[in-house]
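Need residues for this backbone.
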């Protein structure tokens, strides 16, 4: 049997302030290849380039990977603020419709960080642009040095920083075989109100929603707020998620 193919969404990027590009973190590609056992295929997060129907005719699953840009507030009936830029309007256009299409067609979808947020908004939920500004919340952004620069050591950036309590008997608890996990944290925006079909499966110690699934989805449709693509060969939590995604890909290929 041929390897399943997984579409990994790209992000808008301007090189040298002149050249428009699409980028994907290699960590996502490696996690798909090395743990899910699939062929990663980057596609443009731009509706003018990527036709959703044609894409889903080709791939066996989709990863909505993380990104620096926030989902634009107009997507969940809020006002934009320059403090919360950058935005990626093209990716918003594509990803929100794509999340709905994957669920409708039974195509496995895995949302990571921004991907979880996109899944929530796609099903009618809202986001808060800075979770740390809410009373009692932790600072979920990546670690920085005293001078404000991002910490140069990836092991510090992606270190496990807080616990997540999983719903007893839920999809994540069954998949991971435990009800409390510890994860990394590299985000500012987060879920404020869950969408109509969003089932909350895991919550951080400060109340931040960290794991979700889409209710009544015919295939794998999970999202995590942490970066599950980090060290999935060594991290047992992240490995289990990508392995389960890989199993869903094979099941989809057998049915299709």
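Answer:
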């Amino acid at each position: 049997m041929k390897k399943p193919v997984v579409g990994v969404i790209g992000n808008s990027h301007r090189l040298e302030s002149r050249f428009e590009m699409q980028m994907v973190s290699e960590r996502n590609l490696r996690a798909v290849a090395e743990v899910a056992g699939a062929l990663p295929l980057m596609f443009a997060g731009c509706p003018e380039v990527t036709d959703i129907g044609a894409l889903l005719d080709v791939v066996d699953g989709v990863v909505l990977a993380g990104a620096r840009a926030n989902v634009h507030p107009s997507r969940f009936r809020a006002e934009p603020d320059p403090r919360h830029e950058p935005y990626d309007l093209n990716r918003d256009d594509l990803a929100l419709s794509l999340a709905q299409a994957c669920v409708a067609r039974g195509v496995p979808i895995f949302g990571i960080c921004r991907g979880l947020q996109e899944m929530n908004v796609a099903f009618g939920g809202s986001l808060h642009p800075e979770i740390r500004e809410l009373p009692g919340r932790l600072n979920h952004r990546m670690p920085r040095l005293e001078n404000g620069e991002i910490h140069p050591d990836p092991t510090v950036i992606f270190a496990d920083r807080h616990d997540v309590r999983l719903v007893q008997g839920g999809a994540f608890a069954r998949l991971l075989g435990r009800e409390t996990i510890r994860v990394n944290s590299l985000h500012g925006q987060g879920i404020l109100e869950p969408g109509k079909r969003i089932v909350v499966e895991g919550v951080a110690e400060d109340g931040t929603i960290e794991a979700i699934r889409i209710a009544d989805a015919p295939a794998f449709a999970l999202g995590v707020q942490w970066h599950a693509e980090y060290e999935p060969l060594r991290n047992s939590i992240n490995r289990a998620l990508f392995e389960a995604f890989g199993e869903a890909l094979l099941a989809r290929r057998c049915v299709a």
